[in-house]
Amino acid sequence: MNPFDQAQTMLQEIQEANLSSSESAEEFRIKFIGSKGSLKSLFAAIKDIPNERKKEFGQLVNQIKQEAEAKITAAKKNASGANKNKASDNDLTAPGVPYEMGTRHPLSLVKNEMIEIFKRLGFVVEDGPEIEDDWHNFTALNLPENHPARDMQDTFYIDYEANKLLRTHTSSAQIRVMEKQKPPIRIITPGRVYRNETISARAHCTFHQVEGLYIDKDVSFADLKQTLYYFAKEMFNSDNIRMRPSYFPFTEPSAEIDISCFICDSKGCAVCKHSGWVEIGGCGMVDPAVLTNAGIDPEEYSGFAFGMGIERVAMLKYGINDIRLFFENDKRFLEQFS
Ligand code: DAH
Description:
alpha+beta, BirA Bifunctional Protein, domain 2, seven-stranded mixed beta sheet, binds 3,4-dihydroxyphenylalanine
């Protein structure tokens, strides 16, 4: 085939090529304008063309080159256009994937409700450290070393020598508040406490308490009683509570606070140990020795204190019969509080 015919055939082939995919465009490029492509041989043929036709042939070869290149450019543009479409190929009418909303933990719900109730009586929320020292957790609360009542609370010591322990009750926060504030004091301190206890349906090594403290002139046991009645009424819509004489080193007199068991309607169940009553905490009039330890004159001021277990209150409120459920983070349990 003479070079002119060869060029014409190539031009026709280029014009007819269908470069629908990026693969076919690449094949086309290699075949025609790649370093070993057919255009190269056409350019090489120019030197053998008789002089009077060189110009004509050169123009033809140039045309072929330009058309081939234009074709490739167009094919590339098409391919990227198609990809662009693909990227936005979302089905905008498809239903959305719903966000799973978390729920508040039942202990947070109950804690917040307790805070709200006591706030209405003028109590403000205070905080204390979970890592405590012996003075705030024991000694200042009228529990000197070797006091038998220390056995009531099995303590986790972080470092006995360095006087570091995990607080066994939120009562330690009482002392911290009294040390830095002058009466009148009306505070609650919700928080986590730790005890070296065997874990069971009724007990855990970590749980939560709300401590309450009210110090002012002429505070009486009647104020304490009314405060607890108000709490029971607001929290459980029940004033079916009772106070049983008890002993705590930091209060005198002391009492245990019981509320009638909702779980069994006071008929007797595992939660109330078949007594119809559930203990939700302890309370009493702050012992004068504790006031003195914290720098408050017991001749001038008196006060009451109470400590309640948040888990206990939550178990009663929601009819939960195993304290371990609060700490397992089982979604099937938590979702019930949404
Ligand atoms: N701290 C006690 C406990 O954890 C509870 C308690 C009893 C707190 C009597 C008080 C109180 O403030 O007055 O068992």
